Amino acid sequence: MRISPARIWRERGTRYRLEASRCRKCGRVYYPPKTVCPACGSRDMERIRLPERGRLLTWAVEYTVPEGFRRYAPIILGLVEFDNGARVLAPIADARPEELRRGMVVEAVLRRVYEDGNEGVIVYGVKFVPVEE
Ligand SMILES: [Zn+2]
Asked: Tell me: the pLDDT tens digits for 34-44?
């Protein structure tokens, strides 16, 4: 999916909607959405919108990051659980590792995930940021 800079600008500050797929046969939820369920092989998948807020279950911190991602180090990868039981593995932004705690509320936002300095390509994706409670 390509997103134009103008569209990014318009959507700046607005929350990004998380589209996932749910298997009608076994009930598992996948994000990003899949057309075939890896668990049971069913193709009977429905698109659902995940809630914008979930809770941080656990996380991993990566200090050694590849070229092109260094300005974002350390990269925190969090496992976020929603009220409907769906779980998403996604980067956690705007937080230092020592600020994270189990069960804290996080919110989905659209942030730049990669920038190619030579080509000027900027890729955006969903990240989660801690929410003040
Ligand atoms: Zn399934």
From this structure: 899 999 999 99
How crowded is the C-beta side of 107, counted as CA atoms within 13 Å? Answer: 10
| Strand stretches in 65-120, DSSP E | 75-81, 87-92, 105-116
What's the 12 CA to ligand 1 centre distance in angstroms? 35
* CA 45 to centroid of ligand 1, rounded, Å: 8
Helix ranges (H only) for the chain are: 5-11
Tokens coding 56: 């941080």
pTM: 0.69
Top CATH class, 1-15+52-133: mainly beta
